[in-house]
Amino acid sequence: MQELGPFRVNPDGKTLSRNRHAWNNVANVIFRESPAGVGFSYSNTSSENHESGDTRTAVDAYNFLLNWLERFPEYKGRDFYIAGESYSGHYVPQLATVIVALRKLGATSMNLKGIFVGNPYLDDYKNTRGRYEFLWNHGVISDEVWGNISEHCSFGRLEDKACGQAKAKASVRTGNIDRYNIYAPVCIRSRDGSIHSQ
């Protein structure tokens, strides 16, 4: 119900309206949650929900696509793209690797043309550096605060006290913002359960 999906939730919280920027306005889109056990996805064998991993997720996604194409053969041979966000920075290229490897062996005819990843979660340390650099580039933290972070933080596994203090100053200066959309109003929940912009 957010970003690229076909609908938006209206302010009344009960009804929907069409998203005029939805990807399905220009392409056929399949939304798939993975691994099994997250969101509304499931496995008929509940123990499988605890046995996931990146390789298993790629194989499961590939098997899903095979079965889906068998069910809807009119989509076989069409240009095909894989997209995802966040931890799909791992899932998307790994699924693409499975498809490309099987295509080279002649074991699949999927017409994979490319991949997209948005805000990919690739590496915790690089993502942390990128978050602070993004805030600095958008004027949320000052040159002084960013300089202090850059000087005292290596963004490696271990950081010293000076790095922690530098990051803390950035947190104080950014205030209450949505870190995923710094230009959006922050929603707060009232005591009665209603949500409104700050």
From TrEMBL:
Species this protein is from: Triticum urartu (Red wild einkorn)
GO CC term (a single one): vacuole
GO process annotations (BP): proteolysis
Molecular function (Gene Ontology), one example: serine-type carboxypeptidase activity
Family the entry assigns: Belongs to the peptidase S10 family.
Protein name: Carboxypeptidase
